[in-house]
Amino acid sequence: RNVLLKVKDLETTFFTEDGRVPAVDHIDFHINEGEILAIVGESGCGKSVTSLSIMGLVPSPPGKITSGQILLGELDLTKQSEKQMRKIRGKEVAMIFQEPMTSLNPLYTIGNQLTEAILLHNKKMKKKEVASKVIEMMKLVGLPRAEELMKDYPHQLSGGMRQRVMIAMALLCNPKLLIADEPTTALDVTIQAQILKLMKELNKQFRTAVLLITHDLGVVAEVCERVVVMYAGQIVEEAPVGEIFKNPQHPYTKGLLQSVPDMRYKKDSLYSIKGNVPKPGSIQMGCRFAPRCDYATERCITENPPLYELGEGTIHKSRCFLQETEGIGIAERVAEG
Ligand code: SF4
Ligand code: MG
C-alpha cells in the first residue's frame, strides 16, 4: 500500500517558564492510504500535540515544531504558511475532537455549518448542489430526518448526534486523512460503539485514512489495523493491532492492556499502572518509563533505550532493553548526549 503521511523525526517543543519542553520528542511513523492507525497512550504522552502538529494547529507561542518533517505526499506540512495550511485543513486533512460542542458554533444551525464547510473549499458550487450534498452526507453518517435536522442548533442535538455532524463535516470535502482525537471519550458506551462502527464503515466506503488518537485500547481493538504507543513524548511500541494484543512487548503497553476495562483482559481487580506520566522534559536520562516499570534495572535509569525492531514479516518495534535477549535489530539509534 502507498504511504499517505510520513512523520519523520518530529519534535514539537513548548517554551515555558520552566524551560524547553519537548512534548513530542523525535518520533517517526507513517500512515498508509486508507488505513486506520491508532496512537495510544495516557493523557500527557504527546498524542494530541502530534495531531495538532500535523494539522498545523500547535498553539504558538508557546509551542513550535522544532525539528523534523511531516510529509503528505511530497508536501512538507511543517514548511507551509498558515494561509497554505488553511487550504489543506478540511480538504486534505480533517480533524474531529472529543467534544463536538467546542468545534460547532452554537449560534448557527447545523445546516448552515455543514453548508459553510463545503463552500469554504468549493466556492463555485451551486446552492442546490451544496444542499443535496449536505443531506446525502447526513444520511451517510446516520443522522435521521436530515432536512429538519439542518434547521436545528447544536444544543438541540445529543452528544452522539453532534459527533455524527462533526464526522459529516469532516468528510464533506473528501479528505485523504481524518484525524480523530478521542472522538468517543465523551460519549456513553453504546453510542461509542456506534460511532466507531460508523468511522470504520466510512473508512471502507471512502478509503479515508484515519489517525485515531485514544487512551483506550478497547477502542483500538474495535477499529484499527496498526497501533503506535506513545509514552512521555516518545514512541515506545509499534505493531499491527493483533500483535499488540497477543504479543505486547513494552512494559507500558502491557500495563495499558491490563487496565482495559473489558472482561477479556480484566483480572479479578481493575489494574492501573502505578505512578503518573512524567512531566514532559522532567526526565533527562534513562528510560522514561523506569520510575513506573516493574522490570527496571540499574541500566534503565542511566541509559535511554533505543527502539528495537523485532518482527520478521510484520513491523514490530519496542523501546525497551528487555528486547536485547530476543531483539532482532535496532530500528533507531538514540543520539547520545
Ligand atoms: Fe522498563 Fe527498563 Fe524496559 Fe524501560 S528499558 S521499559 S525501565 S525494562
Ligand atoms: Mg489529548
From TrEMBL:
Record keyword Glycoprotein present: no
InterPro entries to which the protein is assigned, alphabetical: AAA+_ATPase, ABC_Ni/Peptide_Import, ABC_transporter-like_ATP-bd, ABC_transporter-like_CS, Oligopep_ABC_C, P-loop_NTPase
Bilayer topology: Peripheral membrane protein
Keywords of the record: ATP-binding, Cell membrane, Membrane, Nucleotide-binding, Transport
CDD domains found in the cross-reference section: ABC_NikE_OppD_transporters (cd03257)
One MF annotation (Gene Ontology) recorded for this entry: ATP binding
Domain ABC transporter: 5-257
Main location: membrane
Coiled coil residues, start to end: none
Subcellular location: Cell membrane
Pfam families: ABC_tran, oligo_HPY
Keyword DNA-binding: no
PANTHER family registered for this protein in UniProt: DIPEPTIDE TRANSPORT ATP-BINDING PROTEIN DPPD (PTHR43297:SF2), OLIGOPEPTIDE TRANSPORT ATP-BINDING PROTEIN APPD (PTHR43297)
Protein family (similarity comment): Belongs to the ABC transporter superfamily.
Name of this chain's protein: ABC transporter ATP-binding protein
UniProt organism field: Ureibacillus aquaedulcis
